[in-house]
Every structure is written in structure tokens, then in C-alpha cells.
Design goal:
Number of strands: 9
Number of helices: 11
Low-confidence stretches: none
Largest sheet: 6 strands, mixed
Order of helices and strands: EEHEHHEEHEEHHEHEHHHH
Structural class: alpha/beta
Oligomer: single chain
Strand content: 15-25%
């Protein structure tokens, strides 16, 4: 049985974790389905945006208890293989060429923090809780770590990795992890607003912008990077989409991708 609810409306795909009875805690089935879904959706030329959310009372409460019980009996090799599948799933979502908007509510714990961290835009409900709870169980947030540190910041990660304390949406917003905090009844409206902004932009430009951030974030603006960025803007200016966008702007009309 599927662990996801995938809805496609025009250029927008909405992927919901669909295990509300366990607050969308994930197991190996969820990992495999998320990996396959984002590989497929990311390669679909008709899509422009993916929204990632969860049905029920929580976005994602981390790992499923039954799955954790099974892992307690795994050998080192089995644990390594299991963790590698999770790492591959996170990388698949992080490297998806389409922008991913996270729709967060309820709890976002442990591995759920990893899912949130790989999204490009995060909208959270007031009062919801975040927690990197692994240390409380004698574990560590290793596979999600690279993405959480990027999204939450090194200094905040130093604290929340080791204390395993909860923090709310207001603190997540102050730390820069979450972009928007809204009332529960405004969540979908804010998500839809951001989706509309993304769909209004040039589809190739949006993908190129997303890749640009990843490529330059850890580099210094040396001669090689300056040449690389000059080449990128020249490429997109000379592309059909770039030419159409500029002509539409100058002609005070909508570009073709909005019609």
C-alpha cells in the first residue's frame, strides 16, 4: 500500500506523507516511495513546482517505532545499508531540479527535520514544534546532518544537535530555518501564494537559480567563479526563454510561459 498521496494539478505536484496514524513517521517503505516519487516528478517536463506536506496532525514525527525496533537487531552492515537508503532519499529530494515548497504543521522531529531541510521554501504553522531528538536516544542526526546544518546554520545546529530540545516555529523563523510562519487556517493560502510566484517565473530560470545557489554558496568569488557566473548569465540571456522574457518585459506583455 502506498505511503504517499500524490496529487498533480497542472504544473504543480503535491506530495503528502500519508501515514497519519503514526504522525507520518517514516520507515523503509516511505524512504523508497519518496525516492522514486521525486526521481519521477523531478524529471517530468510538465511540472514546475513540488509541494511536500503531510496528512493528519503532523508533518513528520521522525522514524517509525516498529522500524526502530527492527533496526535494534540489525548488524553493522545492515545498519549501514539502511542508512545509505535514507541518505540517498535525502539527496534525491535535495538535488531535485524543481523548487520544493515544504508545508509544515504539527511536529517536525528528527528525520522530519531532514525532510524539511531539503526543501527550498518552508512555510510553518504557528506553535508547531521542531526537534533534533536523536541524542536523547543515544543516536545522532548523521544522514540528515549535512542538510540541517546548511538550513539551520552551524551555530544553531551546535546547540540543537546536542541538547535535543524542542523549539517552536517562531524560533525556527528567527534562526532562518523557516521562511514563513502563519496561522493554521492560512497555511494553504500562503503555500499557494508561493507556488503562484514560482509558476509565474521562467521555468528554466527557476531551475538555474536553484542550481546557482548550491554551486556558489561554498565558493569564494575568485576568477574561476566570476567566469563561471558570467558564462551562466550569457547562456540564459541567449536562450529562447531568456530572449522571450526580456522581450515580454520590454513589450509590457506576459511571457509565453504564463499563458
Amino acid at each position: 500500500m502506498t505511503t504517499l498521496d500524490i496529487q498533480i494539478q497542472g504544473p504543480v505536484a503535491r506530495v503528502y506523507l500519508n501515514r497519519p496514524e503514526v504522525r507520518n513517521a517514516f520507515n523503509d517503505g516511505v524512504i523508497d516511495e519518496l525516492t522514486a516519487a521525486f526521481q519521477r516528478l523531478g524529471a517530468d517536463p510538465s511540472l514546475r513546482v513540488i509541494v511536500l506536506g503531510g496528512h493528519g496532525k503532523a508533518f513528520c514525527a521522525g522514524a517509525d517505532l516498529s522500524w526502530m525496533k527492527a533496526m535494534a537487531g540489525y548488524s553493522w552492515e545492515e545498519n549501514r545499508a539502511d542508512a545509505s537508503r535514507l541518505a540517498q532519499m535525502l539527496w534525491t529530494l535535495y538535488s531535485c531540479p524543481l523548487p520544493v515548497v515544504g508545508r509544515l504543521h504539527g511536529d517536525c522531529y528528527a528525520g522530519g527535520m531532514g525532510l524539511a531541510a531539503v526543501c527550498d521554501v518552508l512555510v510553518a504553522v504557528e506553535g508547531m514544534n521542531f526537534c533534533l531528538s536523536e541524542a536523547r536516544l543515544g543516536l545522532l542526526p548523521a544522514t540528515i546532518g549535512p542538510y540541517v546544518v546548511k538550513a539551520l546554520g552551524e551555530q544553531a545546529s551546535r546547540r540543537y544537535f546536542v541538547t535535543a530540545e524542542r523549539f517552536d516555529a517562531a524560533r525556527a523563523h528567527a534562526l532562518g530555518f523557516v521562511h514563513e510562519v502563519v496561522a493554521p487556517d492560512a497555511l494553504d493560502a500562503k503555500v499557494d501564494e508561493i507556488v503562484a510566484l514560482l509558476v509565474a517565473n521562467g521555468p528554466a530560470a527557476v531551475k538555474a537559480c536553484k542550481q546557482l545557489v548550491k554551486d556558489v554558496s561554498a565558493r569564494t568569488p575568485d576568477a574561476a567563479l566570476r567566469e563561471d557566473t558570467a558564462r551562466r548569465i550569457a547562456d540564459i540571456r541567449a536562450s529562447d526563454e531568456g530572449r522571450e522574457g526580456v522581450l515580454a518585459f520590454l513589450g509590457k506583455r506576459d511571457p509565453t510561459w504564463r499563458s
